[in-house]
Design brief:
With 367 residues, the chain is α/β, with parallel strands linked by helices. It has three domains: 187 residues, FAD/NAD(P)-binding domain; 79 residues, D-Amino Acid Oxidase, Chain A, domain 2; 60 residues, no CATH class. It has ten helices and 16 strands. The protein has a seven-stranded mixed beta sheet with strand order 6-5-11-12-13-10-14, with helices on both faces. A six-stranded mixed beta sheet has the order 8-2-1-9-16-15.
Length: 367
């Protein structure tokens, strides 16, 4: 039975943003969420760029979900490390459950409907269907979309761990984290989210146990597994069996292959989906035109990490520091959109940093 103009399957941020966008474009919208509560289970690291959250703030006020602000990041491989430092906030650690709740509340506020504990088994309540049902999307399976080619399996928990609350730590090791990395994301000076990811079919448990042991953590809080798409589906919109079907968020593979982050790209593409709820072809064209290049660049970075291995990545860090690339990223880097610095202005900015920087000893440092 048809009940609404747009049926969104999945009540996470991407699904809610799609519904809000549809409502603002004159459609009625229903969101079906299989869990009894939004935001459960909480699998996301919750680290999202400030610029990304700001760009989404016309839909949801993220400030109500902020737990900590982040200025800096330190990347580790072997005995080498590279620091990206900023004098201002570059990212926030958010309470993902609270953020999801804010998204759902906004759907209702805008006139949409949320139904909880409602698993959709092929019974759609509109001709316009938006699949926002995660990495293993049943909507994608029902409508025979091409598969996602690469996934990352993760484990994460919270622990007491003293750390600079403004600094995120990322650890690379092909032996420990094949196909991904480990992370420590501070919530405050005394607690942090600690997690690992490995490319499937590797199992993250061994990596997680080893990592926690190396950090000297004796007791972890609740440990949550997860799965992240690390490639974009080759098709995310189609017409089939009388339905217009669009995939968004993890269901579409709208995640950064370099880090697994998906809120910014997933919600940004979901906004486009709401505008094109009855136009799969238009949706596909527009989101790829706006965000396809950056998602591809994140994939290139991920492949680079995988190909280089630990020794190659150590040398890359040394070269990057010698060439002032760490300083450039500290000043001009964009966590979401690498294309923003790969242009004429970016090159000029880099040359200015080199001019006032430490390039003089480059060969000595690399050697």
């Amino acid at each position: 039975m048809l009940m609404t103009d747009v049926h969104v399957v999945g009540g996470g941020p991407a699904g809610c943003f799609a519904a809000i966008s549809a409502l603002r474009n004159g459609y009625s919208a229903l969101v079906s969420e299989e869990h009894a509560e939004v935001g459960e289970p909480e699998r996301c690291s919750g680290l999202i760029s400030k610029s990304g959250l700001e760009s989404l703030s016309s839909y949801v006020d993220y400030r109500k979900a902020v737990l900590n602000s982040i200025n800096n990041a330190t990347f580790h491989v072997g005995k080498e490390e590279m620091k990206i430092n900023s004098s201002s906030t570059r990212a926030f650690v958010i309470d993902r459950k609270r953020y999801d709740e804010l998204c759902a509340e906004k759907v209702v506020e805008e006139g949409g409907k949320m139904e909880m504990g409602a698993r959709v088994e092929g019974e759609f309540k509109a001709r316009n269907v938006i699949g926002a049902d995660g990495a293993l999307s049943s909507t994608a399976g029902r409508f025979l979309f091409p598969p996602i080619s690469h996934y990352v399996s993760t484990m994460q928990g919270e622990a007491r761990y003293e750390v600079d609350k403004k600094n995120v730590h990322v650890y690379f090791s092909r032996a420990n984290f094949p196909g991904f990395f480990g992370w420590v994301i501070p919530l405050n000076e005394e607690r942090a989210r600690v997690g690992v990811g490995v490319g499937l079919p590797n199992n993250p448990k061994r990596a997680f146990d080893t990592f926690v042991g190396e950090l000297g953590i004796s007791k972890m809080g609740k440990i949550t597994p997860g799965i992240i798409p690390a490639s974009v589906r080759k098709q995310t919109g189609k017409r089939m069996d009388g339905y217009n079907v669009l995939l968004v968020g993890d269901a579409a593979g709208h995640t950064k292959a370099s880090t697994g982050g998906g809120v910014y790209f997933g919600c940004s593409c979901a906004k486009i989906a709401g505008e094109h709820a009855n136009d799969p072809e238009g949706y596909e064209r527009e989101w790829r035109a706006r965000y396809g290049l950056d998602l591809s660049l994140h994939k290139v970075v991920r492949k680079g990490f995988d190909v280089l291995g630990d020794a190659g990545l150590e040398m890359t860090f040394k070269i990057a520091k010698a060439l002032n690339i760490d300083l450039f990223l500290s000043e001009k880097g964009d966590m979401d959109r690498p294309s923003a610095v790969m242009n004429k202005n970016g090159i000029l900015s880099y040359l200015g940093i080199v001019k006032r920087g430490r390039l003089g000893g480059v060969f000595k440092k690399v050697g």
